[in-house]
């Protein structure tokens, strides 16, 4: 089972979570991040986005998506 990894903002509030979906080639893997659609939906994490990233950059990319609201 793949474990979800929480994402926190600079204030320490949880703003979403992310997980690896599958391994890819050339160190590029498929990930998915879940985050709020708007400030009013805080804590629902209903919006999701798949992305391709290296293992080293995945957490930063997931954070960027979650912080984008």
Tag the structure with descriptive keywords.
single chain, mainly beta, four-stranded antiparallel sheet, 14% helix, 42% strand
Question: What does this protein structure show overall?
Answer:
The protein has 69 residues and is mainly β. Helix content is 14%, strand content 42%. It is built from 1 helix and 4 strands, in the order ββββα.
- Structural class from helices and strands? mainly beta
| Rg over alpha carbons | 12 Å
% residues in beta strands: 35-45%
Task: Please provide the count of β strands.
Answer: 4
**Unreliable parts:** none
H/E element order: EEEEH
Coarse morphology: elongated
Distance between the termini: 29 Å
Can you describe this structure in just a few lines?
The protein has 1 helix and 4 strands. It is mainly beta and 69 residues long.
Write the layout of secondary structure elements.
Elements: E1 5-8, E2 14-22, E3 28-35, E4 47-54, H1 58-67
Antiparallel strand pairs: 1-2, 2-3, 3-4
